[in-house]
Fold this sequence. Notes:
The complex is a heterodimer. The radius of gyration of chain A is 24 Å and the shape is globular. Chain A is built from 19 helices and 13 strands. In chain A, strand 7 (323-324) and strand 8 form a beta hairpin. Chain A is mainly alpha-helical. A two-stranded antiparallel sheet of chain A has the order 2-5. A two-stranded antiparallel sheet of chain A has the order 3-11. Chain A has a two-stranded antiparallel ribbon with strand order 4-9. The longest helix of chain B is centred in the first third of the chain and has 18 residues, at 34-51. Chain B is 12% helix and 43% strand. In chain B, strand 25 (474-487) and strand 26 (492-507) form a beta hairpin. By secondary structure, chain B is mostly beta strands. Classes of the chains: A mainly alpha, B mainly beta. Chains A and B meet through helix 1, strand 1, helix 2, helix 4 and strand 13 of A and strand 30, strand 33, strand 37, strand 38 and strand 39 of B.
Amino acid sequence: MLLSGCADDFLNVLPEDKITSANFPENEADLKLALNGAYAMLRENSVYDQGLFGFGVLDGATPNGYNWGNTPIAKAGNGQLSSGDGSIVTFRWTRCYGIIYRANYLLSILDQVDLDPNAKALYTGEAHFLRGLAFSLLADSYGGVPLISGAISAEEARNISRSSLEDTWNQAISDYNIAISNLQDDAPEVGRANKGAVLGLKMRAYLYQNKYTEVLSVIKEIEALGKYDLYPSYEGLFQPENENNQEVLFDIQYISGENSQGSLIDQYCGTGTGSFTRGTRYVPTDDLVNAYEMIDGSEINPSNPFEGRDPRLEFTVVIPGSYILDHQFPNYTYTGGAYNHPGNRLKHLSTRKYRIQHMSDLPPSGQSYLNNIVIRYADVLLAKAEAIIETGGDIDEAIELVNRIRTERADVKISRLPMGMSQTIAKEKLRKERRIEFAMEGLYWSDIRRWDLGEEIYPVEVRDHKGGLIETKFPNGYLKYYDLLPIPVSELSLNENLVQNPGW
Amino acid sequence: MKLYLSRMYRVLFKNHRLYPLNCQALAIPFKKLGAGFLACLFMITTTTKASNQFPNLEDVFVSIELKGEPLLSAFKKIEEGTPYKFSYKLDQIKKYQNLTLSKSKRTLKPTLDLLLANTELQYERIENSIVITPRINQLQKVQGSITTANVKLISVSGKVTTDTDPQGMPGVNVRVVGTQNGTVTDLEGLYKIDVADESAVLEFTFIGYESIREEVGTSTVINTNLSEIISGLDEVVVVGYGTQKKVNTTGAISTVKYDDELNNRPITNASQALGGTASGVWVSQNSGKPGDDGAQIRIRGWGTLNNSNPLIIIDGVEGSFDQINPADIESMSVLKDAASAAIYGSKAANGVVLVVTKMGKNDQKMQVSLNSYYGIQSLGRRYSLINNSASNMDLSNQALMNDGSSPLFSEALISAFRNGADKYKYPNTDWFQELFQSAPIQQHNLSITGGSKNISSYLSLNFLDQDGMVAKTKSNRYAIRANLESKVNKWLNVSGRLNYLTRKSEEPYADVTYGSLGRVFEMLGGAAPYISPYTSDGRFGSVQAISENGSLLYDNRNPLIDAANGKTLTEEHVITINTSAQIKFTDYLSWKTTFASNVNFNIIDRYNTSVFGYTDTGIETTTKNFNREGLEINRSNLTGINNNLFSTLYFNKTMGDKHSFSAIAGVQLESNRIRNMYARRSQPPKEGLTQVDAGTSGIQANGNLNSFKMLSYFGRINYSLSDKYLFEANLRADGSSRFKTGNRWGVFPGFSAGWRIIDEAFMADQSVLSNLKLRASWGKLGNQNISNYWPYLTVVGQNNNLSYNYGGSFAAGAAVTSLVDENITWETTATLDFGLELGFMDDQITVEADYFKKKTENIIVQLPVPSLLGGLTPPFENLGEMSNDGFEFIFNYNNFKFNRDQFGFNFGLNFTYIKNEVTEFAGGKSPDQLYLIREGYAFRTLYGYNAIGIYQSDSEALEHMFDNGFKPQAGNLKFEDINGDGKLGFEDKKTLGNTIPKVTFGISPSIKYKGFDLNLLFQGVLGVSVYTQNNFTNLTFENRVISERWLDAWTAENTNTSVPSARFDNSWDQSQSSYWVQKLNYIKLKNIQLGYALKEEVVSKIGLQKAYLYINAQNVFTLVTNDYEGFDPERNTFDSGYNYYPVPRIISLGVNLNF
């Protein structure tokens, strides 16, 4: 064609508002963009808990919480989950692989720009940290999954098989190890992974595999950093002014403002006031409330049930008559009161942890700025105690660690556990302490499964304030196959080599 | 005086002029038939005209006898025995009922003289016609008695010509408007007539030609030129880059004439005019939203997995139906097969609709026409919901108890509602009635058409004002069009078409999540009857189901609150400029260049306000997630500029008397730029401020640019041999900026052939058929209609979602979020078409049938990719294949008479059957989904479990689903366990019905009699299924609207039912299954119109040429499959029939005046 040159000139139209692979990456700043883009996935729904839709919602899949409206999380806790569900089933899978993809992409472009060795170590370390984190979540949720450590084609993705559970955990551990060797004690910016963050998640990876000896050795490394301790206030731990304190090993960072960098927790999981119908997507149950001890270890007084209780109860749950957003709760008539969402039948309790407490601080929807803590030092202490107990170590040493949690903070001082208990009793005390300490933080779901507690604790009835039955969780008893989530059906249908978890 | 001849007569006349020899041959066996007789007459007509030898009245002998018989029968007897035909007005001759004539053989002249001797009638022979008129002197007498005694008559004379008879057209009626005074032109086309004064208007009429009126004024010589009405065999069809005679077309083309009938329908968008009127074209108006009711148009089904919208070409340039005033449309052609559409290449795979706007004609008197209607819209069919609060509460309690939960509503409360008379305290709200109100619609269209010797023009003004059925929704449209064509000289012709259209639409504030009106409909889906619309003091109401402790037992879902929230104001401006110049080099070669620009400005302003609902006890509530972002003001702005330049050479030559060639060759450049802007601020200091500046925080802005270019070369060759064997070839090469260099160009060929069997010699002896033509075509077309402008480029996204924060500071991020196949290129559709055209009874009956086989290859699809690839958006790849095979059938019976007193009857039927199949898609490995896309199935086949009944006992359920995790119970749906493994899994899913209609049809009967006309249009669908589970039909605790179907829910006592037991949010019963699938066969009276055309005599007295009054009703009546639950069945079959603006029923009154 005579005019083909001219024609091509005429037809060459390129976007003027987008970066394309043709000019990316060009320098270190581009790598930083890619790194931030990988971290961004951490905020997404269902990576950690419900992420930007609320931290702690996952407790709705346990006796701790009631997640009304028949969401996948509620179904995971009552036996109605299906492999076609979104949320914890499909989104967690997809987004974990999203993190893996972005981490692999970052690793693959590192050599395309001139880079200072220290900077390269940072990017390498953080990419591996994020990838290890994703594989850990996948292993905990689905068991063994396909391992992807570089670019793969769509065709390969349609034929890849699942690796074993052990190999999946090993992949996570090996990623963490690379991260540890590349990262410093302190990150260049608050919120990016440092050595402590990686060690914390590596500890958790071993804990979830019941590899207690390894747990103890990782904890030694954490202690050696000398950076972490309990924060003196349990209440303060979850307040914006105390973010990134000494107890936090790693958290997900949110800010307010117009860039949509906040979470929706106060929108979806809040308690409403005045004219705003806020979601109350998940609420604590009486089952959880009843699990809190009295400060002095005495029996709960049924006629005055909220008096003299473990202070963590009030810091975690909006109990009847207390205040939230400057309004008393519960107040069934809206005028001047705080209330639960009308669609929710459990109206006498609400969640306080991770919520903005005062009306004046309440951000617009999607701008909740409180960071969500992925792992904090209390977890290290309790993991250590658990490991000691489980490995047949010094029970008193372990109980002493539990007592630190019970007495060390200025605002949590309850009766010390006695010394000299049996391993069985110690194990029970430890588990109870973990449930209370981390209530409505989304950890209990994993704990129930790794401790094999399901058959013991279910069915659980959820009742309203008048005793009316709202729901029974696992009415016919726990279904053992719920220990692992189903592989999303959308994924199975594309790959014949993916085998569904048993029972689904 | 006027000749009144039937259409049939006219057609024959034309037929004969074209084929004198054939007609002569035909005439003999037809001899006994009236039609044949006439045909024969006309054979004589033409030959005589050519040789100037008509039998003289003195040379024709007749022998008739009358014994007290009417004059009419005398005429009939003469007609039987001679080649002459009488022309008369019945009311002028019917008073002569008792004539007597002795039997004798006379020539015609004395016979006629005798017959008319004692009447007030005279006769005149024009060729073969004997025209009967009142005697002139008689007329003058009448005039004289009315006016003054001594009238000075003005004598006017002149010549009437037509394009085919430039020397003069004989037999044209010339009449003084408003009088009985008239004459006819002689063989030279000359006439002479006396008129009373200068204000007299002469009307020139001839059958088959458009009539013309001329004011006498001071001139005594009035020459005029009549133009032929295009119809029948001479009908011209608009095709790509030109026109063709319908008889010569070789492709499958449907045409829709934008005639009076369409003009009078309360059509708000031109796309609606296609519905039910053209075969192979399926139009479904899926929304009744004012200003946004554009219909979904499918030509021969869904051709691709992508956008299946046809290409709309307005005056040669790509456009859209919402950019045009429907009244400006002259005609629409739908190019259905690939060969006809091939000249539009890469955009034409889904068919092409060619729209031509009106234009005046040269030497045509200015004609002003006004069409106005006023109508009322109301909600038609709707869901049947339980509007009785007590029943709703009872059922809700039952549903809770069926799940082992405690009841929610106390007996005291329920009985208070059952017995309460206070409608504010104990409402039983029918929300359809509260939300949907009758709303007016009116449209006024004024147009001026006409032309002088060298300039012709069409001007129009349009105003449409439509209020929506939902409060605070409305839209209005103003449109101006100026079309002008100028014959500069013998070789240059220039034209310009200018269109400006503006539309302003209003609706409530549209929230980001729910979008346009979505919130209102979302609330409607949860609007329980125990919510009061208003309080007794006129504020918005709230939930009146209140427990003893004062808490509300439901959240407020009063849709009126959302309908009253703020405003979304959409303002659209469309400017279309279309200019062209045509140079005629020789008789057979011309060159035309067109430049067209389509500029689109779209501004959407939105703001919200605080609106509360109140219980009768004064509790203030809002609806769910109401104004969740707080108060905000935003504006979005789109500017789209589309420029088109194309240049075409036309060649047209007949060689000898057998070979006729025509060809075109052209080049086209197209460029599109679309710019978007968005600005927003929140928290205005005061409510009701509407401009972004008023916000105090929450500043956001977006802006982007999408651009797209195309370069194309195209050509067509037509060859016909002896006018019987027709051949056509089309070719277009398109280059698109959407694809990378190397994949850019696509070449799209089309070939077709036709055989006019009727003109073969061996057909001469048959008497049944008047038309017989076979057509065949094959062609290949492209499609690139995908949402992405740069599908081949890997884009590294950077936006807020991809960004993170460190230590309280924003940290911009980037990531690749979609996969890309760099080699993406066109998808192609090849269509094979065989067509048969038949005409009977001189084309009074026409039949057209087409078989087609359409195969789309390399469909650009986003094949689901495993999330293992990172959850990235799948790449656009050329992967899928789909086939659409089917046939179309059109039947038309046309018996319209030109005489208003005669009974006329028309009947049209069109019918399309299509079988769709996805023939290649992901090697069969496509995800299970409700709207299945899988090899071997029709596109979007419903797919799910097969409900085969209801478990009558828990043990039956346990036995059946013995290995299932969840244990269904008595009252749950029983799903077929296809693989018999005792649990419900993906293996138990099957197809539940197709969502693409197998058969679509339209039926359009109409009758005319004495000025009245009645037009009906039925439209229907057979063989389609829809999925029905939505907030109206299912039971969810969050949306407590309950359909009446649940009154028959399964209970231990009510076991003989198909409705499962009532349970809220029951995942088992809410599984996607056949229980939620309904067959949807319907026939709908889409439109009915009764009109009356005032008598000309009456009309002309008030200075009008035409006055027509009509009453029209749209979407009136539907026969639909039993148990169909929902709004009007004309709806999108790809959704559950929920959350959309239902199509209104419209009853309108209108008037159509011509000045």
